[in-house]
């Protein structure tokens, strides 16, 4: 019968990342090592009073070889066996379920995640990771967890040729190749970033990219799910019923519905809905056309996407298949394009 050696190590309180302080820190306790199976088991938890904390944490382990009664080696990163991890709900866990995921090609750590329906809930789990073969026969182990992934945000210049400010634990690895021990970087566009914990990080999102975890780069505006350059698009942003809409005022001449619709769709935009036109009127954003100098009305008739030949009149009524009103010639009206 083989006896399993199990050793209990000291509790580790983590915030290993500079600037990652929380009102309720991630806590690791009851770390223990089973030499026969090369596994490290520990309790992972945080309290739920900090509504801004992430519901997912990056977990990793460092080890120190024990080669004799009083002989210890240097601490070094442990290599985990991908997929050989278990996560079970611990005492005090208020989440309905717990999961863990492995980053492809990354054997340094794992993500441990609770269900994110309520970030104020307390989280508790027992985590067991397995180290690769070749790990010393006996070793000390320290487990760590952080909910603050490294990130890169452009803070000076433009999104196309700016300088990134890097946050996390130095050194950083940029684009899987360049090691950077500074907190700024401007040599190239950042596509990926990790730090000393090898935690996969984030960079700000560039023009026309989906809005990521750290938002849009400086100079861009989040419109719906994407980062837009309003200046480059000659556009503005406004809010309609809680939705941010991008409007493009590049065409000010009166035209037919078909011509207006084609003009918008040909650049990947669209005509606004009647509701979106009404929101701009309510916000006082009068369309920049001939009607701006006509003192007898507040706005021009404007084509809408609600149906072929439909427009909003100066009195905010929707009309279809005809056009009569302020500064509106037969069969023509003003228009603008939107994107969201």
How would you summarize what this structure contains?
The protein is mainly β and 340 residues long.
Describe this structure in words.
This protein has 340 residues and is mostly beta strands. 6% of the residues lie in helices and 38% in strands. It is built from 3 helices and 27 strands. Strands 1, 2, 3, 4, 8 and 11 form a 6-stranded antiparallel β-sheet that branches. Strands 5, 6, 7, 9, 10 and 12 form a 6-stranded antiparallel β-sheet that branches. The chain has a 4-stranded mixed β-sheet with strand order 17-14-13-19, with no helix packed on it. The longest helix is centred in the C-terminal third of the chain and has 9 residues, at 257-265. The protein is elongated. Residues 1-23 and 292-298 have low confidence and may be disordered.
